[in-house]
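We modelled the chain as a single entity of 368 amino acids. Its sequence is:
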Amino acid sequence: MSISPNGTTPGGNQSSVASSGAIGSTDSGEPEAPCHSVKSKFKKKNKYFFGTLNINSLLKTGKLKQMIKVLNDYHIQILALQETRFTDENVMDSEGFRIFKGKPGRNRARGGAGIPHLGTGFIVHSKFVNAVQEFYSPNDRLSILSFRSLNKTYTLINCHAPINVDNKKNPNKVDQYWESLEHEVSKIPTSNVKILLGDFNAQIGRERKHSKTVGPYPAHKRTNRNGERLIELCKGNNLKLMSTHFKKLPKQQKTWKSPNSNLGEFQIDHVAISFNHQKEVMNVKVRKGANIETDHYLTSIKMNFIPLQKVKSRRTPVQRIDRVLLKSRREEFNQKLEVDTNNWDELKEKVVKVALEVAPLKKSAKHP
């Protein structure tokens, strides 16, 4: 908007609104009251980042170190992992994070003991470890982590669904997986905030009949069979899909790149949360710049909640002698102190005892 040299705007003189009485006189003769900021009595909610990633094996040398660097770069506190291919369920710590390993899997297609296959788990920042209440893994495609915040319990359900083609090739295996997932979700207390996340191999489309659950911004036109199963699960357990809730370009939502470059990229990793708590998810973003060796992209989830506070232990107050008073009563101190031992501990005990008698304890000064 342009302002003319005489101080007027296209709507008239700059002071015309103030002088018209619509706002009130600006020249009351009294000094303006200073503006004081009002401090909120409520606990401040902080922003934290969760995430999900199909890691395509953590057995490769240097892969874990590479992943931890990515977590630090994107400030992610809790990450759900799929296809870890770990061979045990031992909890391990690494560079400020704790790794909870789910049930390991084996690919026995070629006979024998098979090679490490599948496996899910969580990697949790050390600041959140004390808040973790429970971790368990029913099978090699599913693991569940519960943790406390200041006023709620959150349960994260980490999923790795069979590929969409298996709905035709091996329907029994697919049915068994989705039934087990439904069973585990139904066991979670209704008071817990449920967060469903992982690699669902599910494409979510823009069909209007699913809009309440899905939201307005899916990356695909049509829903595939795994997508239908995921939507049914969300509807049955009152969950809202958040990976299709925020307005983004479809290319910014794609989480997996096909090995066939002609097919391009797809959004098959998703995030859902209890419907009544959907506002706690502030954003879901695909981090294509994350430097880690996998055909999936890191999905970060910006959360807004109050973390569990550390309980501060009360320190035993330190007994302090008033040294100024003790100096003024030096003669009294010397008269009462009888040194009849060469043992240091006994001598120390007597000196302190007499000093406390002569000079009463000095009260600790309170901070203003």
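As a brief sanity check on the tokenised model: The first strand starts at residue 8 and ends at 9. Residues 171-187 form the longest helix (17 residues).
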